[in-house]
Predict the 3D structure of the following.
Amino acid sequence: MKARWLPNPALTLLLALLWLLLNNTLSFGQLLLGLFLGWAIPLLVSGFLIEVPRVRKPVRLVLFTLKVLRDIVVANVHVAKLVLGPRKSLRPAFVEIPMAIDNEFALATLTSIISLTPGTVSACLSPDRKMLMVHALDAPDIDALIAEVKRNYEAPLLEIFECSPM
């Protein structure tokens, strides 16, 4: 169990290190100020932070991150072609995708990935968190888009993080 006076030791050290890097000095005063800020900020925002689930497969996480970065680059090229091409070929759509993820962190990660990928954006999450609405710039096949999101992003997140499907 974490001590109440030090809610997130890793974040404390990261913030202190970031402070020292931003100040470009290792003076004792800056070190103390960095440690104080590293302690105070997590303490003040602890009620806003969500619990990060344990990573079951760290290698899979690294490979998944590389795949997401590749998908972002490919989507950039695809969107550029769509935007520079004839407008009548675009088929924008709002698509509702049923969610199997119940963990807040994994769900936030999924919605961020969708929004970071050009051509799609997470538009709305139902109050019960079982349905995610996504806007796609070009969605000729809605069922294929749903299957792609579930196969390429949701399933790996369920596999990587220790969170059960709904």
Q: What stands out?
A: The mean pLDDT is 89.
